[in-house]
Each structure stands twice: as structure tokens, then as C-alpha cells.
Specification:
The chain has twelve helices and 14 strands. The protein is α/β, with parallel strands linked by helices. The protein folds into two domains: 217 residues, Isopropylmalate Dehydrogenase (3-Layer(aba) Sandwich), CATH 3.40.718.10; 140 residues, Isopropylmalate Dehydrogenase (3-Layer(aba) Sandwich). The strands form three sheets. Strands 2-1-3-12-11-4-5-10-8-9 form a ten-stranded mixed β-sheet, sandwiched between helices. It has a two-stranded antiparallel sheet with strand order 6-7. Strands 13-14 form a two-stranded parallel sheet. Helix 6 packs across helix 7 and helix 10 runs antiparallel to helix 11. It is globular, with a radius of gyration of 20 Å. The structure holds 1,4-dihydronicotinamide adenine dinucleotide (NAI), 2-OXO-4-methylpentanoic acid and magnesium ion (MG). 1,4-dihydronicotinamide adenine dinucleotide (NAI) binds next to helix 4.
Length: 384
């Protein structure tokens, strides 16, 4: 597992070399998924037209949509299609309709299966505060201005996958249990990704755990310490208990550069970090493994409370597409164009409801119009 020196992080991916035509699997999923997918397609199409290359987007089923059609939240044919693509772009899954299904027939099981079967053990969740959105955060301007944190979340272990698990009747009452479990090798590989990410960013890595109470966290701390001190000598490593980290992220987030943590702590802390940025609808992510295509997905869920109302913010998915261009498709310049276009749209004062402030003088738009606005900017950009 050798870090690639020329990459902004150790993707360790079989990233394809730059070419004219790419195949990408598109997983629209549930809730706001189809809406943000449509908006992202419009933006991507403008980009590929402008830059003269092709991304062949082929849809596949995941989540509730797959349950409804195939009685399986991640059918084998979807997995095969993903594995055969250059990359995968996912919207989001889940919804009330499937909440009472047996566990194996819930949308979330499809998402977990996809991550496990594709070996996507590292999830990179950048929370970078854009100057245009400083006032969209519920926190004070001086707290969030300039924040740039990368959460490196382990994605295929922890309580989400540990066994034994279940709900049994013991001594006449129901008892529910899951197992928080990590092997040394699982910790080692995520620590190497985090060390590489940190060394290519600000050089500071904070490992978050609960080693004061949990044995699994003690092992986490021991292995992370060994990997970083032995093999990433330029990285300054610190450790923090997760309860304190949750508080420090709000108190003074600028103390963090790169954070590494297990699956559940990373899930929670990254949603928290989204409010530094202003909205969960702004947070992209990259899910990567040691080989094969990555999956690029917003951090948020299917937002059933606003689904079908053209209110969703598509920028997290559009920024996830930018991460895909950069890390999986060898198109860093085009990724930068998409990111620049998002900022230009925000500069124009265009806002979906989640990032609109009362009296800010900005124009309120829906999901569709936001996607089109990004596409319009891309179409008007000069090529270098
Ligand atoms: N990766 C995925 O597909 C994920 C799926 N889920 C699933 O999503 C469903 C809903 O879960 P929640 O806990 O409500 O989390 P959620 O992330 O879907 O929504 C939380 C809040 O953020 C808002 N929000 C989320 N994305 C937004 C966007 N792009 N634009 C504007 N507002 C946005 C929602 O309206 C809601 O108020 C559940 O079934 C859950 O299991 C949850 C998290 C991740
Ligand atoms: C539905 C969960 C399994 C996923 C989640 O919350 C996430 O990946 O952020
Ligand atoms: Mg989550």
C-alpha cells in the first residue's frame, strides 16, 4: 500500500489515465436523489461539452428504488456495473417508505453492501468554508472564516459491520446489540491514507477515538500512533476523545487540519462539520479503496422532508463530481473549473433555501435552477 507521491492524497485508486471517453455509473437513489442527479448531469454535460470530452453516464439501481424494482437494495447487476465503470457517482438513499422493512431490505443495507463489496474503506469528507457562505453558518463569522478541515472516515468497519449483532430476548426482555470492532490491518490502512492526506495538506493529523473507555479505541490509538510516527515523520499527530472533538469542532474549528476516525464517529463529526460550511447540502465526499473505481457521493441523506419540492441543494453532488474528475478520471483542471463555477454562482448571489439568509439580497432558486446556473457559468468560461 504505497502512497502516490504526485496525488493530493493517497487515493491508492486504480484511477484511469486521462482519456476522451469515460464510463461512469450514476446511482440516483431515493428522495432528493433524482433531483440532485438531474442538476448534476446538466452541470457535467456543460463541462464535457466545453472541454471536449465525453462521460457516458449509465444509471443503476440502489436503495429504495432498487427494493421497489428488484426486491434487493443493491442488486448484483448494479454492483457489476459499478465495478466495470471508470467511476461511480451516487446521490443518496433512504426514506420513510422502507423504514420498517427487515434490515436486509432497507435502503441503508444497500449502501453498506456497496461500500463493503467495492472495498471503499476510506471516505474523505472535506469541509471547506467558502467566503460567500460565511454567514450561512449558524456560528460566528470569526469562528468559521477560513476553516478547511478534511475528515478521513473509515468506511467499511466499526459498529456498522461488526458481528454479532441483533435483537434477542434475554431474561424476558429484548436486548439489542452491535459490535464495535476493528482489526489492526483495518486501522493501519486508514491511518496510511490519513497520514498521506495530512502530509499533502497542513501537516497536522488529529486522530479521534474513545480510548479512555473502549478497548477498540485503544487499539486504534496504538496503531495510528505507530503508523504515523514510523512512516509519516513530517505529520504532527495528536489524539482527541470524540466527545471533546465534537465540542472543539464548534468552539474553534481552525485548530483542525485533517481528522481521522472510525466509521460512526466520522459519520457524526462530518455532519457536524457541515454546519461550519453552512449546509449539509454543500458537503461532498470521495469513497475510495485500494483498487477499482471510487464512489463519489454527497455526505447528506435523501432529505425526505424536502423531496420532490425542488428545494434541495445540488452543490454537494456537483462538488462530488468535481472530486471524481480530480481523483478518479485524471481531470484536475476540469474539476477546478467545476469548483470555480460553483463559487461563481455563489458570487452571483444565487442560493437554494438551505443557504439563503433573510435579507441577504440573494436570489432564491430551486435545485433545477441551481444546476442550470452552474452549467451556464461553465459554458461561459474561458479555456486555458
Ligand atoms: N449516503 C446516504 O445516502 C445517506 C442516507 N441517509 C438516509 O437518508 C434518510 C434521511 O435521513 P436524515 O437523517 O433526515 O438525513 P438527511 O441528510 O437526509 O437530512 C438531514 C437534514 O438536512 C437537509 N438536507 C440534506 N441534504 C440536503 C440538500 N442537498 N439540500 C438541502 N437540504 C438538505 C434535510 O432536508 C434534513 O433537514 C434516511 O433514510 C437515512 O437513512 C442518511 C445519511 C446518508
Ligand atoms: C445511512 C448511513 C449508512 C450512511 C450515512 O449516514 C453516511 O454515509 O453519512
Ligand atoms: Mg451520515
Amino acid at each position: 500500500f504505497v502512497p502516490a507521491a504526485n496525488k493530493p492524497f493517497n487515493s491508492a485508486l486504480n484511477a484511469v489515465s486521462k482519456k476522451d471517453t469515460y464510463s461512469v455509473t450514476l446511482l440516483p437513489g431515493d428522495g432528493i436523489g433524482p433531483e440532485i442527479t438531474a442538476a448534476t448531469k446538466v452541470a457535467l454535460e456543460a463541462l464535457t461539452t466545453k472541454c471536449g470530452f465525453t462521460i457516458e453516464l449509465k444509471e443503476a439501481l440502489i436503495g429504495g428504488a432498487a427494493i421497489d424494482e428488484k426486491n434487493d437494495p443493491f442488486p448484483q447487476e448494479s454492483l457489476d456495473q459499478c465495478l466495470g465503470s471508470d467511476s461511480v457517482l451516487l446521490a443518496c438513499i433512504g426514506g420513510y417508505k422502507w423504514d420498517n422493512n427487515p434490515r436486509e431490505l432497507r435502503p441503508e443495507s444497500g449502501l453498506l453492501k456497496m461500500r463493503k463489496e467495492m472495498g471503499l474503506f476510506a471516505n474523505l469528507r472535506p469541509a471547506k468554508v467558502l467566503p460567500q457562505l460565511i454567514d450561512a453558518s449558524t456560528l460566528k463569522r470569526e469562528v468559521v472564516e477560513g476553516v478547511d478541515v478534511m475528515v478521513v472516515r473509515e468506511l467499511t468497519g466499526d459498529v456498522y459491520f461488526g458481528t454479532p449483532k441483533g435483537i434477542d430476548v434475554i431474561d424476558g426482555q429484548r436486548v439489542g446489540y452491535n459490535n464495535m470492532i476493528y482489526s489492526e490491518s483495518e486501522i493501519d490502512r486508514i491511518a496510511r491514507v490519513a497520514g498521506d492526506v495530512a502530509s499533502k495538506r497542513g501537516g497536522k493529523l488529529c486522530s479521534v477515538d474513545k480510548a479512555n473507555v473502549l478497548d477498540v479505541s485503544q487499539l486504534w490509538r496504538d496503531v495510528v500512533t505507530q503508523v504515523i510516527t514510523d512512516d509519516f515523520k513530517d505529520v504532527e499527530l495528536s489524539h482527541m476523545y470524540v466527545d471533546n472533538a465534537a465540542m472543539q469542532l464548534i468552539r474553534w474549528p481552525k485548530q483542525f487540519d485533517t481528522i481521522v476516525c472510525g466509521n460512526i464517529f466520522g459519520d457524526i463529526l462530518s455532519d457536524e462539520a457541515s454546519m461550519l460550511v453552512g449546509s449539509l447540502g454543500m458537503l461532498p465526499s470521495a469513497s475510495i479503496g485500494e483498487s477499482g473505481p471510487g464512489v463519489f457521493e454527497p455526505c447528506h441523506g435523501s432529505a425526505p422532508d424536502i423531496a420532490g419540492e425542488d428545494k434541495a441543494n445540488p452543490l454537494a453532488m456537483i462538488l462530488s463530481a468535481a472530486m471524481m474528475l480530480k481523483y478518479d478520471l485524471d481531470r484536475p483542471a476540469e474539476a477546478q473549473m467545476l469548483e470555480d463555477a460553483v463559487e461563481a454562482v455563489l458570487d452571483q448571489g444565487i442560493r437554494t433555501p438551505d443557504i439563503k439568509q433573510e435579507g441577504d439580497g440573494c436570489k432564491l432558486v430551486g435545485c433545477k435552477e441551481m444546476g442550470q446556473a452552474v452549467a451556464d457559468v461553465v459554458a461561459s468560461m474561458a479555456l486555458n
